[in-house]
Amino acid sequence: MSAPAGSPESAPRRVLIAGAAGVGKTAVARRVERTANLPHTEIDALFHGPGWTVQRGFLESVDAFTSEERWVTEWQYATQLGDLLTSRADTLVFLDYSVWTHMSRLVRRTLRRRLRRVELWNGNVEPPLHTILVDPEHIVRWGWKGRAKIRRRAGPAEPPRGPSPVAGRGRRLASEPAPASLT
Questions:
Q1: Confidence tier at 1 by pLDDT (50, 70, 90)
Q2: What per-residue confidence (pLDDT) applies to 47?
Q3: d(CA 146, CA 141)
Q4: Which of 28, 137, 166, 167 has the fewest CB atoms found within 10 Å of its own CB?
Q5: Secondary structure, 3-state, 72-139
């Protein structure tokens, strides 16, 4: 039997924010952190070491914080983490914006970060703008390619042994805990 809606027992405790690169996963995770009082761990900060290298102990760091009872993070690095995140989350929020909204946000963010030389993680900054033309891993190209991949992963089907997805569109964000059978 599940807890009544609105009760503390029914509130999400382990939340994944899914979406393509640049859609606003971290911004939403920070909002969830404030409103639901869940500790947020920015998964990019755990992954990216100096010079865009993978940090040692990435898997162990993710394992440690997702072993806790309460957290919110972005759903990324499925290749490295497998189903670790989805198997431990009780709620998945899928940010599925239009191509125009997503890509315009990603391009504006990338331009702003590059022109202001904003430090992202461990001394890293966005690469020179011309690299969008030559680097298949450039964040704007990555965001474009990732749209279809994240829809396959987080779309209408439930991730294996994980939370049921809840979609967020536009400025409205919906979230509800997964059925008790999944937690």
A1: very low
A2: 97
A3: 8
A4: 137
A5: EEECCCHHHHCCHHHHHCCEEEEECCCHHHHHHHHHHHHHHHHHHCCCCCCCCCCCCHHHHHCCCCCH
The encoded tokens of residue 132 equal 């969008």
Helix (H), strand (E) counts: the chain: 7, 5
Distance CA 10, CA 4 (A): 6
What sign does the CA torsion over 35, 3, 9, 18 have?
negative
The answer to whether the CB of 96 falls within 8 A of the CB of 168 is yes
* Residues sharing a CB contact under 8 Å with residue 164, sequence separation 6 or more, in sequence order: 92, 158, 178, 179, 182
The string of pLDDT tens digits covering residues 129-164 is: 999 999 999 999 999 988 888 888 776 534 444 554
In whole angstroms, give the CA distance from residue 78 to residue 148. 15
Q: What 8-state DSSP symbol labels residue 157?
A: S
